[in-house]
């Protein structure tokens, strides 16, 4: 990545929901933007913490015992091994950071491919 | 970190410039907010890439051959080993992500202490 990343400009190219697009890398992690709406599969990552920063909209993370509701400018890290189900009532834009190669569903067989943007 | 992080609320507690405050951790990295104004020391990190996301204001990263100007919603990763000098003409708020323990000046002897917030 030689140039700066304008997150809104990158997101303008994303047409589908729940499809993370890699916009950069650092220290072995992928920086990804994603648009979401509706309910994602309940899953967990056994080896990696999961970073969510809301850029627009509103994201609910359904954890085993509670819900975390994130609005623009708010972030949450789901610790490794903790089951979570992302949900968005309205179209929501996120910055995600995960170690490169982490399957978005927690399972390589069902994960969305990583697309470069 | 058990709760969500509201970046603006965290930054409201930061009184001094160039003093990173850790607001969370994930995958061996610190998530930090910082307020900056003026010119920081020119430095480099030999082992780690350096993530900058501008939340408010405007940040210039002076690199060896060029300058990167970041506005809110824009990020840049300074690759490891590349000298850089951050500069902000106006008060600017940033999200920084670095492997835990990385000295902010590139030199443990001159680095600001990591403060938890």
From TrEMBL, chains A, B:
GO terms for molecular function: isomerase activity. InterPro entries: Cupin_2, PKS_Associated_Protein, RmlC-like_jellyroll, RmlC_Cupin_sf. The keyword Cell division does not apply. Residues 31-94 form the Cupin type-2 domain. Keywords: Isomerase. It holds the Pfam family Cupin_2. SUPFAM superfamilies: RmlC-like cupins. This is Mannose-6-phosphate isomerase.
